[in-house]
Every structure is written in C-alpha cells, then in structure tokens.
Amino acid sequence: MSTPAARPRKKTIRMIPQARTPAHEQDPQERARNFAEVNCGYLVEDAQLEAERCLMCPEQPCVAGCPVNVPIPDFIQRITARDYRGAYDVITSTNLLPAVCGRVCPQESQCEGVCTVGESLEPVAIGRLERWVGDLAIREGWSNVPYIEPSGFRVGIVGSGPAGMACAADMAKAGCEVTVYEAFHEAGGVLKYGIPDFRLPNAVVDAEIAKLEALGIRFECNTLVGRLFTIEQMVDEMGFHAVFIGTGAGYPSFMGIPGESLNGVLSANELLTRCNLMHARDFPKYDTPLQPGRRVVVIGAGNTAMDALRVCLRLGADNVRCLYRRSKAEAPARAEEIHHAEEEGIEFHWLASPVEILGDANRSVRGVRCVRMTLGETDASGRRRPVPEPGSEFEIEADMVVYAIGTNANPIIGQTSRLKLDQRGYIATGDGLGTSIPGVFAGGDIVTGAATVIEAMGAGRRAARGMKSFLGLRDTDHVYHDAADDADSRLFGIDRAEHGHARLRVSR
Amino acid sequence: MQHGRNEAGLEIVARQDFSDVTFLLEVSHPMLARAARPGQFVIVMSHAEGERIPLTIADYDRERGTVTLVIQAVGKTTREMQRDCKVGGRLLAMVGPMGVPSHIGKARKVMCVGGGLGVAPVYPQARGYKESGAYVIGVLGFRNRDLVFWDEKFAACCDELIICTDDGSAGIKGLVTDGMRLAMAKHPDIDECVAIGPPVMMKGCAEATRARNIHTVVSLNPVMVDGTGMCGGCRVKLTGGIKFACVDGPDFDGHQVDFDDLMFRLRRYRETEGEASQRFDDDCRMRSLSAKPVIVE
Prior knowledge:
heterodimer, A: five-stranded parallel β-sheet, B: alpha/beta, seven-stranded antiparallel β-sheet, seven-stranded mixed β-sheet
C-alpha cells in the first residue's frame, strides 16, 4: 500500500503549490502590546492548500525526523481527503498534544528540516498543519478515549509537564490507574509557567489536559514530591507499581559576574512564572507583582530568551535588547521566534557578552558592561567558541537584566531519594529510562538537561514503554512475535515478557 | 489517595490573634503535618488571584493532622488573610514542606533565639533540641508585654527562658542580642545558636556569636515564587557563593550570610507592594462605607 506504484498519481515538485502557505499573524506593531496569540494559524482553505504541497514521497524522512514519529504524510493525506477527524486520529496515535506541538516544536530542525520538498522549495509547513488539526479537535471537542481494560496497576507520575503528560497518557491507555503530581497550583509544567500565551495560550494547554483527564488520569496539584512524600514512599507505602519522574531542569543558571544580586536582575524563569502562571501582567487584579522594566536586557538567545524579550515588550518596556555571545546562526531559538522578535522591534546584539551588571546607590540595576566577542575554534557542542575581544568593552543602559542562559537539574528528588544521579545532578537512567530503583523511571529534562517540549514527550513515551515491559504489559506499539518455537520464553503458553496480562487475582 | 483536602482547599481549624498585626492559623493537612520537620516552610496561596507566599512552619501536630502558621500582616496578601481567614474557612493551597529540614545535631547546649515573627518558627527547633537531650536556652524578643505569645509553650521545652522587650514591660529591657549576651556570660559552653527573626535581628545575632565562634544557624525567608528551586528569586549571597534559600536552605550558617544584600533584595518589589497595600486600604474603606447603611438598618 505504501509503494509508490500503488498510488493513483505520483506528485512531482512542479505539480505542487510552489510557495509555502503563510499563516495569519497579528500585525507586529499591534501584537507587541498585547498577549494575544501572534500566529493565528491556518483557515481550512490554507490547510487544504498547504496539504497539497506534500509529495507523499515514499522515503518519509519527516516521520524519522519527528521525535515521536508522527505518521506525517498519512495525516496530511487525510487533510487532503477532507477527513479531518481521521487526520486527528492519525496524529494522536503517537502524539497526544498536536495543538501544543504544532506551536512549540522546532520543526525546522525536525520534520520540516528533512522534508523532501525542502530540498528545492520551502518545506511543507507540517507544524502549522498539525496545529490546525489540533485546534480543530479542541473546537469540535474531539478526543480519543479508547475502551481501556483496567490492568490493575497504579502508576505515579512526578511533574505534569510534557514528559509527565506523555508518559501518563500511554500508561492510562495501557489500563493503569495514573496519578500525576504537580508542585504548582496548576498542571502543565513549562507549558503553563514558561511559554507565554502569545505563543501557546493557556486555554490550549487546559484543553489538552482535559483530554488526559478523560482518559482517567488524575492530576494532584500543590504536591511537592520528595518533600511531602518521597519516591521510595510512593513505591513502598503508597502502592504505586511504577513511578515516572519528569521534574525537569528548572534550576536557573547565573553567570557569577559582579552585580547579579542587584535588584532588577532576575532569571527568565522568575519573569515568565510571574507573568504567565501568576498573571502579574494583570496586576493589581492578581496580587503577584512584577517591577516593569523600561530598558530591559535579556542574556541568551534560546526560546526562553525570546519569550522573556517579547514578554518585557508586551509589559510596556521602551527598549528591549538581546545579548548573545555567539552569532545569529548559532542561536538555539526556533527560527520563527527570532523572526517574530525582530519584527516586533527587539534589538539583537550578537557577539556580545556581559562582564558586569552596574548598580546605583539603591542597589538597583542601571546598566550592563559588555564585551564584544569573536568566534574561535569549534568546541565540544559543535559550535564555534566565542572569545572576548580585548579592549572592546562597552556599556549599555538598563533597569532590568534577565538571565536566560540555561538551567540545571532540579535538586529536590536528588536530595530526598537514593536515586543515582550523574555528575551534573541529573537522574542516571539505563535502557528504557529505568533508574537505579526498580520500577522507577525518569525522562525529559531531568535526565538530559534542558531540551524541547517534544523531546520531553518522546522521553515520556519511551519511559512508558520501559514501564510497560517492567510491568509485563503488552505494548501495542510493537508487533507481537509469536515465540511458539522458543519454549524457554514461554510459560504455560504465555510469553514471559507479557506476564502482566495473565495475572491471577486471588480473592481474599 | 486522599490528602485530607478537597477541591475547595484546606480548612482553617483554629485562629489566634497575638496582636493587631500577628496572628496564628492552624490549617488541616494531615499529610503535610506528617512530613513536616523543624525549619521547613510552606507556600500558601489564599485564593485564585492571590500570590504564592512562603511561610515558615511554626508548629505541626501529627495527631490532629494540622500545620500551624504564624503570620504578620505587613503586605496586601497577609493583611487580606488577616481580614478573611476565619475558622472554618479555607486556604486555596498550601504546598510543602519545602526546604531542607533543620539539622538537629548533637549540640549539648543550644541557644534558640526568636524575634517578633521569628518566635514561632524557632519553637519546633527548641522542641527538637529538647527532645534530642540538649540543654535549651530560649531567648525571645517582643516590642512590649502585650505582644508576648507562646511564652508558656517555650517554657515547657526550654531549660532557661529569657524574654526581652523593647520597653522592659516583660522580662529584661533590651533586644534579643542583650538577652543572648546574658546567656553567653552565664554559659561559656553554648555550642550552637539558632536565630530566627527579621534580617536585621539575625545579623545582630550572628555578630554577637561571631566573637565566641558559636555555630549560628539562621533561617532566611527571601522573596520567592515557586519554592522549588525554579525561579531563583530567593538567591542569597554567602561567603561561599550564591545559594537558593528554597532548596539549599532556608537554614544557613549565619556567619556566612551577607545580610545587607539580603535586606536590599527583600525590597525588590516594595514599590508595587506598597501600591497593592494602598489599594487594599482603599478597598477596605469603600467596603466599610458601603456596609454602613446595612448596619443602620
């Protein structure tokens, strides 16, 4: 069925619409002062037009380029066939959060980066199509709640961010009773506290969480695992047969340069949490304060930095600057975010690094002393190492400095359990993302260090596979191989790896 | 699994007012009461539009399943709590216990110093040391006799108790540091000091013990949002570098803390906080005005 010969007509690059269908966007001038979504997405005719651009090539490099292997051509074909519900079902067979991933995935380095069309034209806008399907599903109230046969297992998930959500969904579908613990008062993790509304509206996150609740997953907020109860207690006393830890890499880094404790210096995490989760932008309706900066400097050029820059602009700053020690080519942010930030009037200072934050008599920030950088030899990360240019120091005025230079492992689980950590404090895992405690799995940023939403979701799903094989549950993702001729792997005619399917329950 | 709480939040089972600004809430949360240790804190959110505020755990009762908080009504949120939190009422959220528990070490003679609001959180430590078999000297500071609270609770777990008031209306006249000097003069063998209170008081305590080289633990309560190591707002400067009070503390070696830095950082949001407090005043006035006709009826 997937051989090209079987297809009715083979599309060629000349046959498809040559230009990428643009998404509707708010005007840069206008949007720089509001928190409404920047990218308003596709209309049905846009989606139809863009879906035409997929060549349905047999290689399907996009599927391999996706961390959760969404069957991309398959769902695009269903858009073309106007089977939108079918498209949604195809996506959600591997990715349960299309409305989120369509918005925040770095598609240019994943599916779209390897798209065949991209070799000669702009690649198919896979992310926009995925988002369109996800939004349609939210509007139409679609959700896929399969009939789930209870397996009798209880699974605890620590952290309600993308890794935890993905793992929870897979385990719920495998019939487990899943409880997700969250320390904040709202579920969603970084999707809620970190990514601002103009990029990912909280309503979208809530809609996706409601779908998880429809699968029977329970969310317990205001619960600090590690301190309220430990991972060991979850396994030993609370009756969880398996536990997944997805607590993320939240601990923000600072540079250790003079002036970092001045008032007006804060981490992007603090800025974004105050603004997004705590609604400081609606102060005084909400009580959480946020001293607005008039002249803001954000250090770093990742997605978090872009979010911080654009949040400050929307909070009413006159001037928002980005300092990055490498050049634009090395900036880790999504291309679209940098482009949007530039359009909105963010000033980018590439190849510049702060050396000191300057304060006034009240210990408030008054400026930043910086040094120009040049790019030297390639370093371990494969990027050219920035080297300070002697004698190139300069000062810029600022009353707020935001650090968005990365994060470290959250220390709480490490402090409160016997789990083996690696040298940097991240949780050490083996095959199937199992940790040093049997039945305890970990994934996402707390294992790999800061990465992307979709990578965390991929890790959550990988851990779920590990968990299923630990519990002896059949993993429907894998083709079942009949091992009849291999007597050792079977017991009473049952595959040993699937012992969970034949559990005997003895009535008491 | 139930935590003894439901959708509507956590029930307030007792309230006591110590003065016009200081009040105590006893909140039902059996699981938290079971997990709490001396020196830890919680983050409270009183309603959906509210702030997340860190409050030190003043006491916990595992039998009753309650956690006691002593709150000073200084900002908008705490003043609103003073007005609205009544017995039978509910707090939207209380999460914790946060922070590394205090290390109740092998010290034989311990001085537990509490000033103002710090009197309450030093109590579990005094009790902890007493239970570990140490000789406990309590030094408590209040402005005047009317504001004295928990003196009986302390008397029950301290071998000696020195009350200090600014005007001498109860105990000795002077600051807690004066009380500490008395205790240190009488007991040259004090090997540990725990001091909790306003930063300026903790700074004074750390200075008072520095010359005698008595290991001094202080409990810091800087501005924070999440309390889980995520925002970095609570970072404090120590001789050995920067630490986050929420996950590395809240207890630190008082001789290493840069208190001046701490005090400046506590003023970070003073302007907006003042604004909020002013608005709260206006709101209260409006409410009392609009409430008047009802009273007349």
